[in-house]
Design a protein that fits this description.
This protein is mainly alpha-helical and about 300 residues long. Among the domains are: about 1-35; about 120-235, MetI-like fold. Helix content is about 70%, strand content about 0%. It is built from 13 helices and 2 strands. It has a two-stranded antiparallel ribbon. The termini are far apart. Keywords: Cell membrane, Membrane, Transmembrane, Transmembrane helix, Transport.
């Protein structure tokens, strides 16, 4: 039976969407690989994403398995990166810890959401901050003054102190860490989006949309926001690195994910007690993991920023 005109139209529409997606993906990779800085950052980030996605394939151990015969051991054939004070395999805890950062969000012991804790936190701050920045920059007046002064007051408080206040008040859990990242990151994103909005709202295509009688919401979310996405995406990459560093800091202070979760910050806190005893591995590897992932994200964002500025 020959396909109807409607089915043929849907097939063509689907093929066009797929073609546009792959074309956009190719442009992104072309932009990344045209910069040495972005390329190095991409491979560092890709290593940790792949390690997190396929964590069960990289190690035969679970992050909570305890080998009582080998506590605080150095690298060996059985444990490539060594073990901690309870005999838990450090490589297993690192890759499963990367899952929590980049791949899954443990809402509870039974419920896990796709997307890492750091990614959810930055995504939430992007939604809130972009909304506030768009409204403030486009509407202006008393609304802009009130919103910006409140956000300025938040930015006046040291970031680490804000994290400590929120997490200590709400309790240590992955969801509360996400909320803390979202709240702390919102002012910076709002100010960035507001600045972009103040510039873009003077463009001719925005004036044309207003002349056509489009609603303010249409102008903000269809005309302004898509044309500001470049700087926002690059800033978001940097903020994921900041969020990972914040998670490590909170874990080190005992306000991160509750044990026995393989939280990188808490691994450093526990491992540092055995550095002078001749077992630096439990503190060394998670420290290098946090540093490498944050540096990779910064290199990727800086490289993309340089390339996008070149084409402007």
């Amino acid at each position: 039976m020959a396909p109807t005109a409607e089915q043929a139209s849907q097939t063509q529409s689907g093929s066009r969407s797929g073609l546009l997606f792959f074309r956009g993906l190719r442009q992104v990779f072309s932009l990344i690989f045209s910069s040495r800085t972005a390329t190095v950052g991409f491979f560092i980030v890709a290593f940790w994403v792949l390690a997190a996605l396929f964590a069960p394939l990289w190690t035969p151990y679970s992050p909570t398995y305890q080998d009582w015969k080998a506590p605080n051991q150095g690298p060996s054939a059985a444990h490539p990166l060594g073990t901690d004070e309870l005999g838990r395999d450090l490589w297993a805890r690192l890759v499963y810890g990367a899952r929590i950062v980049l791949v899954v969000l443990p809402v509870s012991q039974q419920v896990w959401l796709p997307g890492g804790t750091a990614l959810w936190g930055v995504a939430a701050s992007l939604v809130i901050g972009a909304f506030l920045g768009l409204v403030s920059g486009y509407k202006g007046g008393w609304m802009d003054e009130v919103v910006m002064r409140l956000l300025d007051a938040m930015m006046a408080v040291p970031v680490i102190l804000l994290y400590l206040i929120f997490v200590a008040a709400m309790g240590a859990s992955a969801v509360n860490v996400v909320l803390a990242i979202a709240i702390v990151g919102t002012p910076g994103i709002a100010r960035l989006v507001r600045g972009l909005t103040l510039d873009i709202r003077t463009r001719d295509y925005v004036r044309a949309a207003e002349t056509r009688g489009e609603s303010p919401w249409y102008v903000m979310f269809v005309e302004i926001l898509p044309n500001a996405k470049g700087p926002i995406i690059i800033d978001a990459m940097l903020r994921v690195g900041y969020a990972i560093f914040a998670m490590g800091t909170l874990g080190f202070l005992g306000l991160g994910l509750p044990p026995p979760s393989p939280d990188w910050g808490s691994m450093v806190a526990k491992g540092r007690e055995f550095i002078l005893a001749g077992s630096p591995w439990a503190a060394l590897w998670p420290s290098l993991s946090i540093a490498s992932l944050v540096v990779g994200l910064n290199l990727l964002a800086d490289g993309l920023r340089e390339e996008t500025m070149r084409y402007q």
